[in-house]
């Protein structure tokens, strides 16, 4: 199956996404075949192959193409990013964290396999992701692969996912969380990996410094808008529609955008961020069509 989807005026996001998802799903299956110890691999595959929108790997591939290279060269990194993201979901759902029962339309990892295996499945996905990038990224200068490893290591660690989660937990139940703290939590917890997904694709594709700066700004705005929409849907949507628990933020006393700004103002902020993300890429014309359409589709989930 070819992965190339030429952006043009008749661009159809639905078709684009389903072609990309199918390719990512097939490659994830190949990169995480069942081995020994079977229980550990089963737990890793259970969450990784459970579906999910595959937004982060799709962003990575799209940024690579925007930079002028074939999406294929970024495929191992795109799959690695989905592994890091899945690790964060498994750990986020643990009883010591957000204590969720459902994710991606099925029971959470620890509900299926117990806490010990869920922790180890998450750890293994994280370690495996970096092995995958190092072993399977070929035909490009090693310097680019190293830069990708640095981006993703940063996004997973204290400046990204882990740091954001710590700050999120530390602010649970506080009634006086302001915009600055809220933005810091979500820039790390959600924004950092989205940003690294776009940047990794751009780096692998050979983007120059001005292009990387534009893509970084686009990804930062997209990341914040994504979290705002996620927070809104936690209030307004259902478990059936989202495939994960809803209402958890309010019951855990989480710092969220609707709580700090209200639903209407949160929606308006998301709209402004997406409009700005679109302008960040205007200079690239039709080549940016997929990234622009992806950003705009975020708002459609609120309609
Ligand atoms: C162990 C290094 C280390 C880090 C883990 C648990 C944790 C630290 C961080 C939590 C990060 C987290 C779960 C943030 C929420 C991000 C978010 C809005 C996820 C939902 O993403 P979607 O909607 O989900 O793309 P799908 O299932 O479609 O992939």
Quantity of strands, as a count: 2
Mean pLDDT: 94
Uncertain regions: pLDDT < 50 for 5+ in a row? none
Which assembly state applies to the chains in this document?
single chain
Largest β-sheet summary: 2 strands, antiparallel
Number of helices: 15
Structural class by sheet pairing and helices: mainly alpha
Strand order of the largest sheet: 1-2
How much strand content do the residues show?
Answer: under 5%
| List of distinct ligands in this structure | geranylgeranyl diphosphate
Fraction of helical residues:
55-70%
Q: Please tell me how large the radius of gyration is.
A: 18 Å
Q: What sequence of helices (H) and strands (E) makes up the elements? A: HHHHEEHHHHHHHHHHH
Distance between the termini: 33 Å
Overall outline:
globular
Please provide a written account of the structure.
The protein is mostly helical and 303 residues long. The chain is built from 15 helices and two strands. A two-stranded antiparallel ribbon has the order 1-2. It is globular, with a radius of gyration of 18 Å. 45% of the residues are buried. The site of geranylgeranyl diphosphate (GRG) has 18 residues, from helix 4, helix 8, helix 9 and helix 10.
